[in-house]
Every structure is written in C-alpha cells, then in structure tokens.
Amino acid sequence: MRERGRHIKFFAIKTLIIIFVSHEFIRESSQLCVMTLKWKCASGSALKIIAILSMTADHLVKTIWKGSEFINEYLFLFMDKWITPGFFIRIFGRLAFPIFAFLLTEGFVHTCSRSKYALRLFILALISEIPYDLCMYGSVFYSGNQNIFFTLLLGLLGFTALEEFKKNRLNGSLLLAGIALLAITLNVDYELKGVLFIILLYLIKNNYVLQALTAGTLLPYYGTAWLAAIPISMYNGERGFVRNKFLKYAFYLYYPLHLTIIFLIQS
Q1: What is the DSSP string of the chain?
Q2: Distances, alpha carbon 244 to alpha carbons 53, 99, 112, 152, 247, in Å
Q3: Which of 95, 111, 120, 218 has the fewest CB atoms within 10 Å, i.e. is most exposed?
Q4: Which has the closest alpha carbon to 255: 89, 136, 118?
Q5: How far apart (Å, rounded) are the C-alpha atoms in residues 153 and 179?
Q6: How far apart are CA 168 and CA 163, in angstroms?
Q7: Measured between alpha carbons, how far is 110 from 122 in angstroms, rounded to an integer?
C-alpha cells in the first residue's frame, strides 16, 4: 500500500508539473503571437512609401548632394571623413532595392495578368531611361548602366522562367540563361547579382521571414541594404491604400518624374 501511495503521489506531482509547464508555455506563446501580430503592421502600400522615400534620398545624395564622394558602400564608422549627413542619408537610401524586389514577387503572385504586368515594367523602363541617364550621367544616352526597371523586368521574366522550369527543365534553363545574358549585356542596375537576388526571393515567396533574412544576408555588397529586412519582416500580407488605378500608376510614374526634377534642379 505504501509503495502504491508513493506511485500515486509521484504521478500527481508529475501531472501538476506538466500542467504548470503547459500553462506557462501557452501563456508565453499567446503573448508572442500578440507581439507578432503587432509587429506585422506594414501593408504593401506602406512598404512602397518607404521604398520611394529611400530611393529618392539615395538619388539626391548621389546627385545634388555633392558630398557623396565621402560615402562608401560599406560601414566603416571609425573613419571620421565618412560620418557626414550624406552618409546617413545613403544608409536609408540602400533600403529601396530589396523592398522593391520583395514587392515585385508579391505583385507577380497576386496580379490578374502577368503579361500586362511585364508590359507595364517594360514601358516604364523605356520611359525612364532618358531621365535616368540625364540625372545620373548628364547624357541623353549612356550604355554603361540601365535604370532599375530593367532589373525588375528581368527579375519578373525570371519568375516566368522558374514556372516554365517546373514543366520543362530544358526550356526553363535556357530562359534563365538568356535572362542572365541580358542582365550582363544591358548593364542593368545592381547587375546580374540584383536579378538573381530577385529570383531567389521568388523561390521562397511563401515565407516572409525567410525573405527578410535573405534580404539581410545576401546584400552586404550594397552596404546597409540588409536593413531592409526590418520593414520586410513587418509586412502583413495586405495591399493597403493603393487600390485604384490612379494611385497605382502614380507610384509607377514617380520614378521618371523625380529623376527629371532632380536633373532640372542640377541644371
């Protein structure tokens, strides 16, 4: 009887410990969920605003802000000559590309027509090229570098190539090779590395956390671009306030317009 009593007591104590641990685990997990929901506060529209502000800051510090020669792509804060106002603006300016790349993957997944989406990017790339060359290089035509919309377009075509690869590996591989060749030949902004980065984001499109980590780890060669992992990780999967066509096209047209304005100010 004593042996049986000890077993019952031991079982009761063990049960109470399990209940207590389970209760604490559930409580902590629920708090973590609430924190996660609060953290996921950025819609696609909010990310667009951040990316546009970042891009504008980056372009201003490259052009109008003449102190930009003191700004390096890497953070060596111990060198006083690089600690300038323009340096800190450039830190913010590095967020734009990874956020635009992330939004491109979301747009490709949710668009009603992928062909029209690609066509819009192509038309905008053509429209933006002269303002881009004038703003950045002071020339109507400069073959050494093409604007960001060519990079985004090739990334989008890369998504299509990946979809084709699932059906036919040979055709998909040829398409990917052609896209890589175009990126090198056209000298697109962010080079081939940028196009490959966009394609990689699409491969892990269903995991926002992993996408944020990817943006944070694969872009060290673009200085503080890894900081884009923070706003990307805050994405809540919602479209936000940019819903009608006017706002949608206004965001598209902002790119060539702001380049034109910067060029006119420089002139």
Answers
A1: -HHHHHHHHHHHHHHHHHHHHHHHHHHHHHHHHHHHHHH--B-HHHHHHHHHHHHHHHHHHHTT-GGGGG--SS--TTSGGG-SHHHHHHHHHTTHHHHHHHHHHHHHHH-S-HHHHHHHHHHHHHHHHHHHHHHHHSSS--TT-B-HHHHHHHHHHHHHHHHHHHH-HHHHHHHHHHHHHHHHHHTBTTHHHHHHHHHHHHHTTT-HHHHHHHHHHS-GGGGGGGGGHHHHHTB-S---S--SHHHHHHHHHHHHHHHHHHHHHH-
A2: 21, 21, 14, 22, 6
A3: 111
A4: 136
A5: 10
A6: 9
A7: 19
Q: In this predicted model, what pLDDT tens digit does every residue of 150-166 receive, in sequence order?
A: 999 999 999 999 999 98
Instruction: List pLDDT tens digits, range 108-152.
Output: 998 889 999 999 999 999 999 999 999 999 899 898 899 999 999
Q: How far apart, in whole angstroms, are the C-alpha atoms of residue 139 and residue 136?
A: 8
Gyration radius from the chain CA atoms: 24
Whether the Cβ atoms of residue 164 and residue 173 lie closer than 8 Å to each other: no
CA–centroid distance for 22 within its chain: 39
Predicted local distance difference test score (pLDDT) of residue 28:
43
Q: Residues in the chain with pLDDT < 50?
A: 8, 11-12, 14-37, 67-80
Distance CA 125, CA 75 (A): 31
Q: What is the pTM of this model?
A: 0.76
pLDDT at 201: 86
According to the model, what pLDDT value does residue 212 have?
65
What mean pLDDT, rounded, does the chain reach? 77
Which has the closest alpha carbon to 104: 168, 3, 190?
A: 190
Q: Determine the pLDDT at residue 152.
A: 96
